[in-house]
Design goal:
Blueprint lengths: L6 H12 L9 H18 L10 E2 L2 E2 L1 H16 L4 H29 L3 H24 L13 H23 L5 H69 L5 H15 L10 H16 L3 E6 L9 H19 L9 E9 L2 E9 L6 E2 L2 E2 L12 H11 L3 E7 L2 E9 L2
Parallel strand pairs: 3-4
Antiparallel strand pairs: 1-2, 4-5, 5-9, 6-7, 8-9
Helix pairs in contact: 1-3, 1-4, 1-5, 2-3, 3-4, 4-5, 4-6, 4-7, 6-7, 7-8, 7-9, 7-10, 9-10, 10-11
């Protein structure tokens, strides 16, 4: 029990809880077991542990910085994350752990608990805190929000606040001026810091995502209007051409007949577009099929468009347009021309409407919160296609799931039938 209550053990556990939704690196357990073992054993091998006199200078101990760096190194080795993410998770985890320490010390001093009872109570506080952290990362602190770590002021504030808390705590402890009042103030400060960190980060991420989402919605609606006008114009032209071809057939020239046949074949391509029973779905499939054809990509679809009649036109375009755009972009990376095929099915099943899409994907994508993360450098304007898809799914009480296996990326969307 005493070992679980060690500072560095609790900090590492809390950091791992915050990282549960992040994608693990390859050979996760091969990385995690030796790295975590070395981190946990290090203070046992040094006199005084992280508070050794060798790392203490006057009123400041470098032990806290050592814990910060080493614990961050462990989670960085085991999860796909950048330096900004490591710093943020470490700051939040350290602050939560310090609250556990303050609550334990207040109870121990106020109730006059023995060492065994004090350790038991500290373990209880720690387990409750772990439950709170798990609930936060599962509900509010979503992995999709961790894509925005460009706010340098937030990270500076997090590091400075965490450092100040630990310096003041060590100063009061080393000079034996630790009282219930001081601990209560310390605990309240930590709690306020946690709320500030999580709320500022959540609000800024939500504002950024909403702005880009609104921009994407406007673009998709404008694109849908343009696509409908284009298809209508093409259909009118095809209708006129058919009449012209019928008139030309009365001519007897062999050369004219050959030209007419070629022209007719070119026109008939527009009749080969799938007829799903939903005009909007047909427009989307027609546009994306032409786009895919330019890159030598084939879209094989079996779609019951009538079953998607419960969706608004703009939502259909966001859902199917983004899904097909992402698939086309991924298949463009496939060298095998015969393998450039996108499979797309949509049909009702057991009072649910199921959409399934799969396409070859040479490289395994990085997943965060169950969604693939863009590989492009400009994350401000790329990578929001999947978030748009999830937004529409949640709007209609549906669910989205993605996966990758053996070079094939799959996308499944499920909606309750109204």
């Amino acid at each position: 029990m005493w070992f679980v209550n060690q500072f560095h053990v609790q900090i590492l556990v809390l950091e791992i809880l915050f990282c549960l939704r992040l994608q693990r690196r390859k050979l996760f357990w091969v990385r995690f077991l030796p790295a975590a073992g070395a981190y946990l054993a290090l203070p046992l091998l040094t006199p005084g542990g992280f508070f050794s006199p060798y790392v203490t200078w006057n009123w400041f101990t470098f032990g806290f910085l050592v814990m910060f760096v080493l614990s961050g190194l462990v989670i960085w080795l085991c999860f796909h994350m950048n330096a900004r993410q490591v710093i943020f998770y470490c700051c939040v985890a350290h602050t939560f752990q310090h609250m556990v320490h303050c609550l334990h010390r207040m109870a121990e001093m106020g109730l006059g608990l023995s060492f065994a009872w004090g350790q038991s109570l500290q373990l209880l506080f720690f387990l409750v805190t772990c439950g709170i952290v798990y609930a936060l990362q599962k509900t509010r602190f979503r992995g999709s929000e961790t894509a925005d770590f460009q706010n340098g002021y937030l990270l500076i504030f997090a590091v400075a606040s965490t450092l100040i808390i630990y310096v003041l705590s060590y100063c009061t402890t080393s000079r034996e001026v630790e009282t219930i009042g001081v601990l209560f103030f310390d605990c309240s400060t930590c709690l306020l810091l946690v709320f500030i960190l999580l709320d500022i980060f959540r609000i800024r991420a939500a504002e950024r995502e909403n702005l880009i989402m609104q921009r994407m919605l406007r673009q998709e609606q404008e694109q849908h209007t343009l696509s409908r006008a284009t298809i209508d114009a093409v259909n009118r032209k095809c209708h006129d051409l058919r009449h012209q071809i019928a008139a030309l057939r009365h001519m007897s020239s062999d050369e004219q007949e050959k030209s007419i046949s070629e022209l007719e074949s070119a026109v008939l391509i527009y009749d080969s577009f799938p007829k799903s029973g939903n005009v909007d779905v047909d427009i989307i499939l027609a546009e994306k099929s032409m786009l895919a054809e330019e890159s030598g990509i084939s879209i094989r679809s079996m779609v019951d468009g009538a079953g998607l009649g419960f969706m608004k036109t703009e939502d259909l375009y966001i859902l199917l347009g983004n899904a097909l755009d992402n698939a086309i972009e991924a298949v463009r990376q496939v060298d095998d021309r015969e393998g450039r095929v996108i499979s797309f099915t949509a049909a009702p099943r057991d009072r649910m409407f199921c959409i399934h899409m799969e396409n070859p994907c040479p490289r395994e994508p990085l997943f965060m919160d169950g969604l693939p993360v863009t590989s492009k450098q400009d994350t401000d304007y790329h990578g929001y296609g999947m978030r748009s898809i999830r937004y529409v799914c949640e709007k209609y009480k549906g669910a989205v799931r993605t996966g990758w296996e053996d070079g094939v990326f799959t996308l499944d969307m499920l909606f309750p039938m109204p």
